[in-house]
Amino acid sequence: MTIRLAPSLLSADLARLADEVARVLAGGAEFIHVDVMDGHFVPNLTFGAPLVRALRRVTDAPLDCHLMVERPEDYIGPFADAGATILTIHPEATDHLERHLAEIRRRGMRAGAAVNPATPLTAVEEVAGDLDVLLVMSVNPGFGGQPFWEPAVEKVRRARALLDAAGSTALLEVDGGVARDTIGRLAAAGADTFVAGHDIFSAADPAAEVRELRRLAEAAAPGRMTG
Ligand code: DX5
Ligand code: ZN
User: Fold this and answer.
1) What is the number of H-type helices and E-type strands within the chain?
2) Model's pTM, two decimal places?
3) 130: annotated active-site residue
4) What is the mean pLDDT of the chain?
């Protein structure tokens, strides 16, 4: 299983964003996770497509954009134009998930669906074959640095089974409270892509923290290569 790390800019020093991106990429991060919040779907307000456009000017790294917004369909065009790589939307925020996932792909991005802690996996079951990313939230979204929601480990296990049953090769991403004490259990349960904000950006050396999280995930992942 290939492990991917996606540092969340929510906990980065926003006044030095280009430097923060460079630091985590130097540590080997595969994705840069961009948390887009609208103050309605979640009780916080963050970034929009203009930030993605600005990041695109300083990096070629995949930009993993997580839309925590109502009516995510309204943002597909702007995020595609801005240079987003992955666009992940919440089924709780829209009535026509399947249509919008198709539109995300039509606009040349990879399509993700994210489920909040209280949202059952059945919300994405019918579209499992249409997903490039399935994101299991392990906190209620809105803020960085929240405590890990423990039942996420078992939910990741069920999400892995759901993807396998659908014959899907989608990434299984987990977001919220990912840190040294949780990443191994999540990897063992079948997650392969890990968002981490507070753990990475509060570390003295964020690049080293990316490497440490990867080491712990790889050590715990099923079917890992040895030697
Ligand atoms: C939660 C966001 C997360 C958040 C994770 O609202 O979707 O991406 O930044 O932060 P940590 O890793 O600090 O829990
Ligand atoms: Zn996120």
Assistant:
1) 9, 8
2) 0.98
3) no
4) 97
